[in-house]
């Protein structure tokens, strides 16, 4: 399963990771893997290029109201298991062998979502080349936060940063 966190218009770092995220989406589609878009806020919109890449492919869209997308994602996955009307490509929590995760902001939304999902004890791969921190304070500060977050996630037992 590929989980894409907050690649939205309102986050400038989304433009930075977009080419790598689109590449991951193409690979996931070729392998017929499930894809989940986790978005911050009700009515949130992912970048147009990303949604165009997903056109015609059944994917799950999950809205969250804080930095942690793990809880809403888990709830949505459970709903997909028990509601046959939700026709989403390969979404079945019991058949998920691994989770790949990418998106923005590494030091907030990505790390908190990974932390929540790590309790499922499913192997998680954080795609570092498809993650970035928002360019808010300074590029140096954002890079330091990004790298520290990746090192921290790599220490969790079922999480691997690649």
The CATH topology name reads: Rossmann fold
CATH architecture: 3-Layer(aba) Sandwich
* Annotation, overall tally of beta strands: 6
Please, what is the oligomeric state? single chain
Low-confidence stretches: none
CATH class: Alpha Beta
- Secondary structure category: alpha/beta
Please tell me the overall pLDDT. Answer: 85
Strand content: 15-25%
Quickly count the helices: 5
H and E string: EHEHEHEHEHE
Neighbour order of strands in the largest sheet: 3-2-1-4-5-6
Shape: globular
Q: Major sheet, described briefly?
A: 6 strands, parallel
Rg from Cα? 15 Å
Distance between the termini: 16 Å
CATH superfamily: Isochorismatase-like
Question: Your description of this structure?
Answer:
The protein is α/β, with parallel strands linked by helices. It has one domain: Isochorismatase-like (Rossmann fold, 3-Layer(aba) Sandwich). 41% of the residues lie in helices and 20% in strands. It is built from five helices and six strands. It has helices at 13-30, 48-54, 70-82, 106-118, 139-154; strands at 2-5, 35-40, 60-64, 99-104, 124-132, 159-161. The chain has a six-stranded parallel beta sheet with strand order 3-2-1-4-5-6. Strand 1, helix 1 (13-30) and strand 2 form a beta-alpha-beta unit. Helix 1 runs parallel beside helix 2 and helix 4 (106-118) packs parallel to helix 5.
Topology:
Blueprint: E1 2-5, H1 13-30, E2 35-40, H2 48-54, E3 60-64, H3 70-82, E4 99-104, H4 106-118, E5 124-132, H5 139-154, E6 159-161
Parallel strand pairs: 1-2, 1-4, 2-3, 4-5, 5-6
């Amino acid at each position: 399963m590929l989980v894409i966190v907050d690649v939205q218009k309102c986050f400038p770092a989304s433009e930075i990771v977009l080419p790598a995220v689109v590449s991951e989406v193409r690979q996931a589609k070729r392998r017929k893997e499930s894809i989940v878009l986790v978005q911050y806020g009700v009515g949130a919109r992912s970048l147009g290029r990303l949604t165009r890449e997903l056109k015609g492919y059944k994917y799950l869209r999950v809205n969250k109201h804080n930095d942690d997308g793990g809880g809403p994602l888990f709830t949505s996955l459970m709903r997909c298991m028990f509601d046959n009307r939700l026709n989403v490509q390969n979404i079945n929590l019991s058949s998920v062998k691994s989770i790949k995760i990418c998106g923005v902001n590494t030091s907030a939304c990505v790390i908190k979502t990974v932390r929540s999902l790590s309790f499922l004890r499913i192997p998680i791969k954080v795609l570092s080349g498809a993650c970035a921190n928002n360019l808010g304070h300074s590029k140096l500060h954002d890079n330091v936060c990004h790298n520290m977050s990746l090192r921290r996630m790599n220490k969790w037992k079922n999480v691997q940063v690649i």
